[in-house]
Amino acid sequence: MVSVLIVGQPNVGKTSFAINFANYLGVEKLKLLVRQPAGFLAIRTYQLEEAYEELVAVEPHKTTKIQSVQLKLPIGKKDKKVRLIDSCGLVDEIHSKQKIRRAMAQTLDQLFQSQIILHMVDLSQFNYFSQLKKIDQALYNLFHQQSGYKILANKLDLDRQERNLIKLKNLIDQKLIIAISALSQQGFTEVKAFLLENV
Ligand SMILES: Nc1nc2c(ncn2[C@@H]2O[C@H](COP(=O)(O)OP(=O)(O)OP(=O)(O)O)[C@@H](O)[C@H]2O)c(=O)[nH]1
Ligand SMILES: [Mg+2]
Asked: pLDDT tens digits, residue range 103-112?
């Protein structure tokens, strides 16, 4: 099955996207496969609202495990199955907590095992940083020439994000950007089309 990894800094909206994209594709109950840092797998089932309450947070580093959901992408009369993988956010610095460092190592491991990479950035951060953070630049440099790579520019629903989107488009190849709102499901049709092209 094709693996689709959502990767990016903490708090950019990776988990929100995973839950709402699953919802967009018709999932009613979220069956999450959670990989513990020690290696074993557990399955957790959530109602979508419950998943949002338990797995999404305003504080960074809410997600500290690789967690994934199987999705069906409709191709004609058939479905194509993919595994959408949510991950621990990556940061420029060496994190002080061992748990987070381990979780980030899991993300890096997954990065090189996934066929499709959805690299998420938070448009609202471009108010303050007109440059990409080092980690985002490094991910972009590594993957931008691969066909299964897109930048998801998230939080388009917030005020003044169109201006930040232009800023982002000046920094990187704009053909690789899909502007989305993980909350309002904006841009999801384009993400689905991109996945269908690459599975
Ligand atoms: N306005 C707005 N807020 C969003 C959007 N997506 C996520 N958020 C908010 O951003 C915060 C972080 O969302 P998460 O989905 O937990 O982000 P994450 O990237 O999984 O964060 P970590 O697990 O900590 O790495 C929450 O307060 C979300 O409600 C969006 O499209 N628009
Ligand atoms: Mg998360």
From this structure: 999 999 999 9
Does the pTM of the predicted model rise above 0.70?
Answer: yes
Residue 128's pLDDT is 57
Pocket of ligand 1 (CB under 6 A): 10-16, 56-58, 60-63, 89, 154-155, 157-158, 181-183
| Number of domains comprising the chain | 1
Neighbours of ion ligand 2 (CB under 5 A): 14-15, 62-63
Beta-carbon contacts of 163 under 8 Å, excluding residues fewer than 6 positions away, are: none
Atom of ligand 1 nearest to the CA of 10: 25
Tokens linked to 50: 């419950």
Residue 29's domain is classified under what CATH number?
A: 3.40.50.300
Q: Could you list the residue range(s) of the whole structural domain that residue 170 is in? A: 2-198
Nearest ligand (C-alpha, residue 103): 1
Spatial distance between the Cα atoms of 197 and 195, rounded to a whole number of angstroms: 5
Q: Which atom of ligand 1 is nearest to the CA of 61?
A: 24
151 Rama class: left (phi>0) / alpha (psi -120 to 50) / beta: beta
- Each residue of 128-186: pLDDT tens digit? 557 899 999 999 999 999 999 999 999 999 988 988 999 999 999 999 999 999 999 99
